[in-house]
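Case study B.
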Amino acid sequence: MSRARGTLAGATVLAATTVALDLLAHPHGDTWWHHTPGFDLIFGFVGCAVIVIVSKALGKAALQRPERSAADSNGAADPEDLTT
Amino acid sequence: MTVHPSLILFATAAAVALGPRTLRQALLILGAAGALLAAATLPQGEHWSYAIGDLPLELLRVDALSHLFGLIFTLIVAIGALYAWHVARGGEHAATLIYAGGALGVVYAGDWVSAFVWWEVMAWASVFVVWAGGTPRSEAAGFRYLFMHLVGGGLFLLGLAAHLTGGGAMTFGPFGEPGGWAYWLILLAVAINAAIPPLHAWLVDAYPEASITGTVFLSAFTTKTAVYVLIRVFPGSDLLVWVGIVMALYGVVYAVLENNIRRLLGYHIISQVGYMVAAVGIGTPLALGGAAAHAFCHILYKALLLMGAGAVITATGRRKLTDLGGIARQMPVVVVLYMVGAFSISGVPLFNGFISKSMIITAAGDDGRGLAELLLTLASIGTFLHTGLKLPYFTFFGPSRGLAVKAVPRNMVAAMGVAAACCVGLGLAPGWLYARLATPVDYHPYTLDHVAGSLQLLGGTALAFWWLLGKLKGEATESIDTDWLYRTRVPRAMHSAAAMAAATGEAAQAAARSATKLAAAFARDPLAGGRWIVASGSKATASGYDEDRYRLPIGVTVFWVVLALWLVSAAGLALGRGLATGSLPHPAPTYSWPCETRR
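Model:
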């Protein structure tokens, strides 16, 4: 069995265990997601994917620009920074 | 005998800066340990009251809240002093200790005026900690940092003036209902220090540029002092719930894009402070306790993470994800200790973040704020993604860059060990922290549903990380944040305005020169314009002004002068005769001469 498949199998067993724990646990909150077994697992997966995809899209659309210089690494003044 | 911990830190700062170099390290550790001991032994209920004129001031007020914050502030000074043991510059140590003393002063202040003074001490001293970075970049970032904090201090002072002149109480305590200039001005000032977007950019601008050891201290005091003030003054301000949620998610989004490891961790300070701000807004006892507990835990794990990042920079000289990778085997102890901090901030059970962050999320749910609960949980996913997975993977485990790794000073690793022990200790025994909260809470983090839910959340996040690994690697890019406005656009607008003013001045000068030339030409030849119109193209025009042609003979001028003199004389004579005969009224006398009075 390859390393990746082994990791996947281990993760699946762990996920199944935690979902089983959900069935045994007494839910704390009143909302529907507290009573849905495995909700946090799905929320973690989907939430992470949403954060990455949305952030990257925002970065490409507006928030990111190419590095201007090696200034960041060596502490030299930023050449385009008008307040330096 | 009680001693204000700030006074110990100030005395230590003077000793470290001015004392013999050989004793510097010993004095630093002794002073930090002394301040910790003083804070731990301050009895609750202790007050130091005094008056300046009519102002009743309170330099020291120890209650459960100030005791808790005083304890964690002095603890992190002690850990930070150990981390900075090898730093030879006494001035940097002094600035750090005065900065910490200022923060402690705010925490222990019992009145508004003392709180403001300490607030300013903290702001000014922290600028020198930023400048201790010693690079042109840190110098520029320090000035921008100073600008933002001077604005914050000014707002605080204005709000304080409005509060006191409006008959507000001198006691440094809750405002009550929102409203009024004092409330909003002071909230705005605190929002700057809490790094609430869009007033946050100073943090991610300045913290990564400070010295390696200075960043550790910076992460602990300014934002957490602001959180303390929010808990003390603005509990239950509903607006803060959504402000905090935006903060928590804002930091997460930018952390995805960030390539500089210390700036990435800086964005997560904003995100984590967002939880505390939201908790203050929720305002229930569990939420307020959660805010204080999370501040306590956050100071420890964030310092640990930044100490880890500092160790990496010390060992490799690199600070970007795109330059790092494959160094885990060369610094295994640092990796393990960093991961303790990463698990703590991510809320992994048995680590301290789990016992405090879950309080806030639970408080949101208990308060009927389901959407807030979900969004804070979403931010928690982002935290694990970046600090627990992305940063350690690409820094320690990713593709090797063939970096030469230097040994990290042992004191740095030892300080990381102490912070990690505190993180684990609090995670294992949360009761110690809960017993010291200002608001008693009946909260049990280690329930089956909490633990199972957290493990699922972390597992789901790890699966998505694995799936999206290719998208998450560092990119050689910079993120445009709100500091872009005052770093480029505002100066550019000011340059444009100055250029416009200069151009207007030059145009006015040119117009004045032209008008002067015209006036001079007119004086030289008054009929030139008329001649140009009447006799355009004639010989006379072409040859210029000819006085024999255009001026009247002198006899005519003499005639008009004599005539005018005659008319004036005749009018004068007629007027004099009219007054004498009484046909014209005499003007009424307006005053008497002194001689008449004497008569």
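Chain B touches chain A through 69 residues (CB under 8 Å). The remaining cases will be described in the next quarterly update.
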